[in-house]
């Protein structure tokens, strides 16, 4: 009986899939997220709210990745004079901050932070709940209040700014950006080879020996499929590495 090959994957398919995942990751995570911006004080920075924690609070880019990665987040874009709330008392339902910042144990609140209905998922003067899947029109962020407005709800703001001599509000403000990740754009293979070159010679030899043992185990494992004529599936590969990992631990 011929077995379906829907679940099979060649080495080339796997490499291409891995490269695609790496490309998507670089687009989604353009900067480093090891450092919380709390020590920088009140700055203009990208801010995120958390629907999962259900709290009128905002966090920096790093905390959105490191502390709330598995939560449902709201991207509020740039907010001025804002300090990260993650890990503070009564913020984010007291969800802990995984980026240890000693100052957060001393400074309990961010009294100067300002919160509007954006932090609850509502936008514009019409107070509409924003749904990216259903929103069809273009929205614009006000440079004064930094709320977001539908095009039809804006009105002639530019003329109002001119008539009140406050065109200076259009001057660009500096916004904190996450530190650039120097590994962005590089594959895991390239990064791995670079790290391998930094390892001491003895460790390199041990690593190569371990790789050789793994290759021999794989060859032996695949021989049974060759002899029986069975197609190797993704589940078979996962089972092999699950057993290999168990043997390494024990």
Overview in brief:
Helix content is 38%, strand content 11%. It is an alpha+beta fold.
Walk me through this protein's architecture.
This protein is α+β, with helices and mostly antiparallel strands and 250 residues long. The protein has 8 helices and 6 strands, in the order H-E-H-E-H-E-E-E-E-H-H-H-H-H. A hairpin with a 4-residue loop joins strand 3 (122-123) and strand 4 (128-129). It is elongated, with a radius of gyration of 26 Å. A zinc finger (UBR-type) spans 34-102.
Overall shape: elongated
Low-confidence stretches: none
Nearest-integer average pLDDT = 80
Main beta-sheet strand count, sense and barrel state: 2 strands, antiparallel
For the CA atoms, what is the radius of gyration? 26 Å
Number of helical runs? 8
Sequence of strands across the biggest β-sheet: 1-2
What is the helix content? 25-40%
Task: Estimate nothing, just give the exact number of structural domains.
Answer: 2
Q: How many β-strand runs?
A: 6
Set down the secondary structure blueprint:
Blueprint: H1 11-28, E1 43-50, H2 61-66, E2 73-82, H3 103-106, E3 122-123, E4 128-129, E5 139-141, E6 148-150, H4 151-154, H5 157-163, H6 188-198, H7 201-228, H8 234-249
Antiparallel strand pairs: 1-2, 3-4, 5-6
């Amino acid at each position: 009986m011929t077995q379906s090959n829907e679940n099979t994957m060649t080495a080339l398919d796997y490499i291409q899939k891995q490269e695609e995942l790496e490309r998507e990751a670089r687009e989604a995570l353009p900067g480093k997220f090891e450092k919380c911006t709390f020590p920088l004080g009140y700055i203009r920075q990208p801010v995120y709210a958390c629907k999962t924690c259900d709290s009128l609070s905002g966090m920096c880019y790093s905390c959105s990745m490191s502390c709330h990665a598995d939560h449902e987040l709201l991207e509020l874009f740039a907010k001025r004079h804002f300090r990260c709330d993650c890990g503070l008392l009564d913020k984010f339902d007291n969800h802990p901050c995984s980026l240890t910042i000693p100052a957060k144990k001393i400074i309990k609140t961010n009294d100067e932070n300002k919160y509007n209905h954006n932090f609850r998922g509502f936008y514009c003067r019409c107070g509409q709940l924003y749904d990216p899947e259903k929103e069809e029109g273009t929205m614009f962020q006000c440079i004064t209040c930094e709320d977001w407005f539908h095009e039809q709800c804006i009105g002639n703001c530019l003329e109002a700014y001119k008539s009140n001599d406050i065109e200076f509000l259009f001057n660009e403000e500096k916004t904190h950006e996450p530190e650039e990740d120097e590994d962005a754009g590089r594959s895991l293979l390239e990064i791995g080879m670079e790290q391998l070159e930094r390892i001491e010679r003895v460790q390199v030899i041990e690593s190569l020996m371990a790789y050789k043992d793994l290759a021999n185990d794989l060859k032996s494992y695949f021989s049974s499929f060759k002899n029986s004529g069975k197609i190797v599936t993704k589940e078979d590969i996962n089972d092999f590495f699950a057993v290999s990992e168990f043997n390494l631990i024990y």
